[in-house]
Amino acid sequence: MNARSIALTVNGRPVNGTADVRTTLADFLRHSLRLTGTHLGCEHGVCGACTVLVDGASVRSCLMLAVQAEGAHVRTIEGLAGPDGELHPLQTAFRDKHGLQCGFCTPGMLMTLVEFLEENPDPAEAEIRDAISGNICRCTGYESIVAAALQAAAEIRERRR
Amino acid sequence: MRAVGRSVPRIEDPALLVGKGRYVDDIALPGTLHAAFVRSASAHARIAAIDTAAAAGMPGVHAVLTAADLRPVLRSLRLPLGASPTSSENSSTPFVLNGHEAAYVGEPIALVVADTRYEAEDAAGAVFVDYEPLPVVADARRAVEAGTPAVRTELASNLLNRMMVAFGDVDEAFAKATHVVADELWQHRGCGHPLEGRGVLAETRPDGGLCVWSSTQMPHDLFHTLAGMLGLDENCLRVVTPDVGGGFGPKYCIYPEELAVPAAALLLGRNVKWIEDRRENFLSAVQERDQYWSLEVATDGDGRILGMRGRLIHDQGAYAPKAVNLPYNSASAVTGPYVVPAFAVEVLIAHTNKVPVSSVRGAGYPQAAFAMERMIDLVAARLGIDRVAVRARNLIPPEKMPYTKPLKARSGAGIVYDSGDYPACQAEALAAAGWHDFPRRQAEALAQGRHLGIGIANAVKGTGRGPFESGVVRVAPSGRVSVFTGATAMGQGLATALAQICADELGVRPEEVGVIAGDTAFAQFGLGGFASRQLVTAGSSVHIAAKAVAAKAIRAASTMLDLPEAELELAGGEVRGRGGSNRGISLAEIATRLRGAPGYAFPAEIEPGLEASIQWKTDALAYANACHVAEVEVDIETGHVGVSHYIALHDSGRLINPMIVDGQIKGGIAHGIGNALYELMGYDEEGQPLTTTFADYLLVTAPELPRFETLYRETPSPINPLGAKGVGEAGTIPAAAAIISAVEDALRPFGVRISQTPVTPEFLFNLISKARAKQRAEREMPA
Ligand code: FES
Ligand code: FES
Question: Cα of B120 to ligand 1 centre, how many Å?
Fold first, then answer.
């Protein structure tokens, strides 16, 4: 063990912990912080299931070390709904449009799309497909995910008005 | 409003959407140790020595276990045949750990148990295995040739099984044929790749028993295998399927790791967890891989099929964890929705030094559909008849339903297609696809140098395999309604569908029904998830059980309210008098009374408990059918195939939840498109896997896919009380055949024939280049 103490913010809460220098951010979130909503589908950076936001940008948490997150703001699926439990428009849309089956890719899909819709509030279908091209889903055939993203985008635009 | 037939939102989703799912690796038990496997680096070698000393001394390591170490807690080192009535081992079932002769790269040899997964993996890398190389057989066709060395030295022959699947007088059919077409086909299906790999957590219990969580489709099979192999009292064992991140077939097997991890837990007296990584999944989760078909089709002058014959070589890999039903499925399903009077296909099942083979979504049926549909396209091309006309001439007409294929299913029952109108399905799909207008669009595109093609494929799939699935419906004294079943949820939405079925009978809403699936502590009997069976079988059991509970509630209420049963109805969670009577009693109160109280009177002629347990039995299959039409554009300079339109018509009987059905179909199509164009599990001649990451093995992603247009006909199946047919595999089965038909159509100007999956850009580029060179040579040839 070559442990370091680290301090970061996770879903708005300050966290102090220790992590072996080689521990990935994904394992730190899942096993040290017990935030098991972030999933691991490949552990080699291709499937996107482990996507979280680090300082607002999507990151594959299987490819980042926990110690690299020192001082960062990390956002995971557990931080997506409001403090009162109100679902994010993407979460609602995924349920309405059947954007998930087994749910294993879902956290990564949601976090990827959260970032994407913040930057592209009025996306075309093809842009959404490109945005999730780094996220593998074996269950859905993606169409329902794309439909969910379109519904969420409309809802987010509506709320901003 | 009744829930069945409506797209009610899934009851699974609220937890999954906020990160509160509970997959096996999410379960944290105190004091859990972590396992990593040492796997063979050689496709075939005698294991001369295993040196564990260095690994054992590494930080955090509790034990390095070999086959010899596990032997004391195992009845045998060899697994029994999975999913079989006898459960005995044979010379092709896998080993829990193999300490003597490795037969594929990835075969488990030893197991390291350490404080963390990181430390376990470090130490696994430090176990030294001395391999003495033995000859490797990587090609199934070579495996069955005389003189080829055995893939395991214990085998006399690589031919695991040889069978003839036949009916009618095929020689006579060929003798009187006007045309005979022949082809050699190679089909590769690849791996299942649920996004969540396999994983096992074994908890030691104070009574000396175990609780085992596994990401499996088969909890009850695992339960019985563990009880037998570990010699555990069944009453001290529980197997639980937690949330499962996809099944797709590979989790239908019982694996060495599912035995080794619980055995290690017993041996060490500690909780032990193993979570597969993706590389391990490539190296050790079953694959469906390769079939080589040689086929001949005999027709009359109009393209009517008279007979079909040939041979199928099925690559079984190094072991057969289950009985080899899959190639039988392929051969017995190849004639599909068509009338074929005479048929004879010899099936050769060959061992190779590769990862063992069992089912991947479709389980032999996609190959069957591919073989048949490619042959029909060939008949059409040779006879100069339109592809859809040949199909229409040969489809089983609706007036012949139910239609018997003179073959037997695994249960011994005849193969009887129960319902459906195949010609109407094809006609409707073609109309939706604009098939008859396509030649014009194709010609216009070609004039601009663009190569469009359209393809079609029909398919049938026997669904709802028996013999039964369990369904228990219980109302607790709290009023909580629960369904317990041995069926296994692996992401399809099974809980929602069962809740809908139950809710309608009990007059409650689906979200008020809790479903516990795949937990041996709650369901004594169960078979599990395979063969698109669970909605049909478990759904029928739940339907009947819920009806029984409703009837019992009314009977009990009749006594309690002193009203005749005929004047009572069940709605909104209570039994009340019909026609606005204000007398009523809630299900909770009835359940409380039926719980009994010490020494107090109990309603006469009513059994305790507001519950019913049903195992609806069947040996017949409900046959779903489909017609897919695909449109593609091929870039002839790069060999790239773009799928531009996709129409899928399915008759899956009565739809319980159309939204879930549509999700299953679309996901299945994506899988089939992957099989057609992208997914290739590569091996070199020494049996070394060449594709062990998602960067090498391509799963289809969103930009490659068009929007799918799905259409449904609902011909109720007459053989189950729901009228339902399974949908888990139906979308996959015709997809690759439709895509390849379209690619070949796009390349018509080059006159090429495609007889394989997958077709990569490189393959197509070479095919096109060769055809163009030939065309050039012909043009330049002096007349
Ligand atoms: S687990 Fe990180 S990209 Fe797949
Ligand atoms: S919902 Fe299962 S992988 Fe996407």
Answer: 21
